[in-house]
Amino acid sequence: MILLRHGQSLFNLHFTATRRDPGIPDAPLTPLGHAQAEHAAESLAREPIRRIIVSPYTRALQTAAPIARRLAVPVTVSPLVRERYAFACDIGTPASELARAWPGHDFSALEEIWWPTMEESRESITGRAARFRAEIAALPDWREVLVVAHWGFILALTGESVSNGEWRRADPAAPPPEEIIWHP
Length: 184
Fold this sequence. Notes:
- The protein has a single domain (2-169), classed as Phosphoglycerate mutase-like (Rossmann fold, 3-Layer(aba) Sandwich).
- It has a five-stranded mixed sheet with strand order 3-2-4-1-5.
- The protein is globular, with a radius of gyration of 15 Å.
- It has helices spanning 10-18, 31-44, 58-71, 95-101, 122-137, 151-158, and strands at 2-5, 51-54, 75-77, 145-149, 167-169.
- The longest helix has 16 residues, at 122-137.
- The chain is of the alpha/beta class.
């Protein structure tokens, strides 16, 4: 599978500058984030992607949009690949509102309020990543799946820290990371 971290969001822009939560729920992409999404669409156009699994956060949906358009592949929204709930940007948008905004996507795996109400532990996101790893490894087409997710989820899944708009190949049958270095 290919793992793509969403483009730069308004949260990323402000948090990087101040190291404080700017209090932006479900932060959308910045102009740079949209450019990163377009660049990802261009570079991934040569990959054998047959479907996209995307996090329900707006920044991930916006990142997946130009790729889905370019490749004309189905998009499934999965709460399993969402970010670790720790900041205001991890307060999501209700599923009914997302479905109205993104009518071509499959939101059937989403409850109306799909994000946690309290900070998620590292053990919880690591467990979620393990569940996703097992689910995707069981699929015959996992090599042709693009997953648009977040820094914390990709780190929990692979042990790798990736920047906004970067993508990596990952084998879900590979052993999980022995140690994950979480930034403070």
